[in-house]
What we know:
Helix content is 45%, strand content 0%. It is an all-alpha fold.
Amino acid sequence: MRPTSPQTHGAPAKSFRMALGALIIKEKLGISARETVEQIRENPYLQYFLGQSNYSNELAFDPSLLV
């Protein structure tokens, strides 16, 4: 059996900064995972806090990743 390469299987990993930052935002604002993802999508300051260099109007990740 040959080992699988992480580049060929599964979704790309999110950075630790993005994951921790999203949890901080969620807890500080006291909102749900879905609302957290929407707030990040709408707010360039939150995107910068998570380490993104450019504003994007797309969802950064699926809300189920915060559960």
